[in-house]
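Weekly sync notes, structure subgroup
Attendees: PM, AL, DS (notes)

Item 1: joint prediction request from the bench team. They want all two components modeled as one assembly rather than separately. Inputs as received:
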Amino acid sequence: MEISRPVSKALTTDQAHAQDADADAVVVQRVQAGEVAAFDQLILKYRERLYSIIYNLTSNREDAADLTQDTFIKAFQSINRFKGKSSFFTWIYRIGVNATYTHLRRNRLRRFFSLENMDQELASADILEALTAKTDLTREGALRELQEKLNEALQTLSLRHRTVVVLFEIEAMSHQEIAEVMKCSVGTVRSRLHYAKQQLQTKLQSYIS
Amino acid sequence: MPETDDYSRSQKMTLEQLLQVKRLEKPSSEFWLSFELELKEKQLKALVKPGRRQRFRTVLLPRLAVLAPLTAVAGIAALVLSTSWMGIGGNARLPGMEEELASPGATLPVLAAGTDLVEMEKAPTARPRLADPQFVVDALVPERSSQESFRTVSVPQTFLASTDGTAHYVMNVFTAGRRESGGSIKTSGEF
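Output from the run, pasted for the record:
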């Protein structure tokens, strides 16, 4: 039986995820048995993605680094409570997202953008043009400017809408995985994503074709 | 940067493409070095610092072990004091009556039979006396002389009641005036 390409791709992804989850479960069992050093493997495996999620939610590098470290410490302290009902990455992302929510709610009045402010704000057309520039310096500058604009646009979304966009569009997680992390239904994830994208379209109109 | 190559074809892009630009924001290797060092430091602190449960066991439990008996003793003392106040202090509000009861042969002022025959509405503050089988009763008594057509005026008065259902008027709590007359009243049986 011939399986169409997207379906076969989805199956491969699912299989890879299942294998990944099994490997994580083994490491978690070792940590639970008292092999503390085994937790370093999990840190190495997930620190970049976890940091990326938290950074895209906070738009602040220092806060993201602190929150990522705190997330690993929380996970380590409560590793014995992890029963393996969900995959380890879903569990640790949930801890990270919740820690970020708590942090952002506490510092609601603080506006933060860790990217340095450009002396001169460039127009969207200039940024897009600079991205195609031949010199790396110009291109990098334009890229940073664009990333800052995206950060600003993301910050205008509510926490839940921002989380869905970050997890789906930037972290390429599936609806099901996002639903597990956010403890809501897949339908809710879809509707939040739809609404958030509508909002972003309006905010980033000048960049979008 | 594969995403940025698309821009050469068209300067504008879709929202999805735009958001993928965020994937390019990756920290440097120096960042991860300091991240690891800080994390190790935090892990060590977390290992040294006791958790909530351990803190409860090591810090709060010993304190509770000292505080709990002290609190219990203080509670019992307060209970004993309040009970004795109910027995002695309550009666102490009526100094005249105490003197009369203390002096042998003293006659209590009693209500004249038939006059001011009152029916006690409620006796919520009836307190048994310790020395004799009598009760001090505070009661709201309807005042007939000032009774109006639509409402009853009640006056707080104090009686010395016996277990046989008779009561002797002692004083008007508001005016502290004593009446020389006496009589029996029908008690509500709440004491």
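Discussion: The interface with chain B takes residues 43, 47-48, 51-52, 55-56, 61, 65, 68-70, 72-73, 76-77, 125, 128-129, 131-132, 139, 143, 146-147, 150, 165, 169-170, 197, 200-201, 204, 207-209 of chain A (CB under 8 Å).
Action: AL to compare against the crosslinking data before next sync.
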